[in-house]
Structure formats: C-alpha cells, structure tokens
Fold this protein.
Amino acid sequence: MTKITIVAFDGTRYELDAADGSTVMENALRNSVPGIDGECGGACACATCHVYVDDEWVEKVGGPEAMEEDMLDFASDVRPSSRLSCQIKVSPALEGLVVHAPERQG
C-alpha cells in the first residue's frame, strides 16, 4: 500500500492507503472524494477525473501521454500540472503523492 493524498477543492484532505497498481482515480472513487467523477471508468475517454499534481510531485509523476493530452482538451482550467487521475498508477515511488481536485470537471 502506498499513501496518497487527494485535496478536494474546499481544502479537505483525503489521506488514502492505495493499492500499488491501482490508479489515483480508482482510489478517489472508492473513497468518495468529491470532485473526481471518473465517468468513463478509467478508459481515458473523458476528462472527469482531472487533477492538479502538487508542484513537488510533477516531475516524479511525469507528463501525460498523447491520448491523455487529447482528453485534457476537454477539461476545465487546464494547467501545466494537469493530469487525468485515471492515468496515474500508484506505486511505491509515489509514496506521499499529493494531487488537488479542480473546482469543477469538464
């Protein structure tokens, strides 16, 4: 298990024990984190699991692949740290990861 934190738009912090190999989105949905909808179920076919990766984690998480970049075009308020949480796989290398949910999903 890897500890990750998802910060809702209102500032509420959800500190989760996430199974390695799962995605940030799966853990958000399992724990009813508001602001992450995941309407496509993690198929990278929508932008309803958009998050902002905390600045200190951007480099470690890495950037989006081409398909994810295309889907981010449908997200609201995209920033350099924007990622789709369905594309961020939890691993021990991400112990302590912090992501932030946007005000609204696209």
In short: Residues 2-100 form a domain with the Ubiquitin-like (UB roll) fold (CATH 3.10.20.30). The chain has a mean pLDDT of 96.
